[in-house]
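Section 5: illustrative case.
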């Protein structure tokens, strides 16, 4: 039997972060760490998806540390890698949201965006997808590599096949190792089930999984496309009362303009002006 050290999922914050062109210069903290699993309460995955400017991104990195490497000290990374990661996480969540909505045209759009956002990893297994008719020129067993080839395949495929491709992407997207964490107090041990996370990037993907597990779907405002921040999205369709109001007002105007010609017609019938 081996004796292991305590397993933890601590991750460093950054003491300072700045940009120079496409370079992100981070001073990774030695002492200021937080627990990746516990940070789920603060929804850093939702925070990252909602970032819109470089200054917001710097604030995020200062608070939650580097995405991939945790060695303390000064590091230079590429700013574009951070935005690419954000895009791929956002595109994945968008794909889940489109699949939940069930509109096949939306699923097609979302899966295409997802492939573009995860270009480097884009490989699909064709095995198990039934080719027929005009799709027969794609191999029935094999792989398609590269974002462009896969987007071409999708553009030429019928909806049901695009649905199968989307299912394949989602089912093969994320896996994590599971474990226990045990903390001891003076009187008892507390045992928790938790994932083993290799770093912040993996933790953010796990949080999307955890949202699905807890049935807290991430969804986007139909007015402006921004992520809806309230965790229980069953009760919120819009990002803000303003956008809910704007959409309701537009619906009302539409119904009103549909009603007016009808009213006019019925008034004419009854001889009213
Ligand atoms: Zn909105």
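Designed sequence:
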């Amino acid at each position: 039997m081996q004796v292991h050290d305590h397993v933890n999922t601590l991750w460093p914050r950054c003491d300072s972060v700045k940009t120079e062109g496409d370079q992100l210069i981070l001073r990774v903290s030695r002492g200021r760490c937080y627990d990746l699993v516990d940070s789920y309460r603060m929804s850093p995955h939702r925070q990252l998806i909602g970032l819109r400017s470089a200054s917001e991104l710097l604030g995020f990195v200062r608070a939650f540390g580097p995405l991939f490497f945790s060695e303390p000290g000064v590091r230079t990374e590429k700013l574009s890698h951070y935005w690419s990661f954000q895009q791929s996480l956002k595109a994945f969540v968008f794909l889940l949201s489109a699949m939940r909505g069930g509109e096949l045209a939306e699923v097609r759009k979302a899966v295409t965006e997802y492939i573009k956002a995860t270009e480097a990893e884009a490989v699909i297994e064709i095995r198990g997808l039934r080719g027929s008719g005009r799709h027969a020129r794609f191999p029935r067993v094999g792989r398609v590599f590269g974002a462009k080839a896969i987007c071409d395949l999708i553009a030429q495929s019928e909806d049901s096949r695009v649905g199968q491709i989307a299912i394949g992407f989602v089912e093969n997207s994320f896996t994590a190792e599971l474990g226990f964490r045990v903390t001891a107090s003076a009187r008892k041990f507390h045992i928790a089930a938790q994932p083993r996370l290799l770093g912040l990037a993996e933790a953010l993907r796990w949080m999307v999984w955890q949202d699905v597990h807890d049935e807290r779907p991430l969804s986007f405002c139909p007015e402006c496309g921004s992520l809806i921040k309230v965790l229980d999205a069953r009760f919120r369709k819009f990002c803000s009362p303003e956008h809910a109001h704007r959409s309701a007002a537009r619906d009302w105007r539409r119904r009103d303009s549909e009603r007016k010609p009808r009213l006019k017609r019925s008034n004419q019938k009854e001889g009213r002006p």
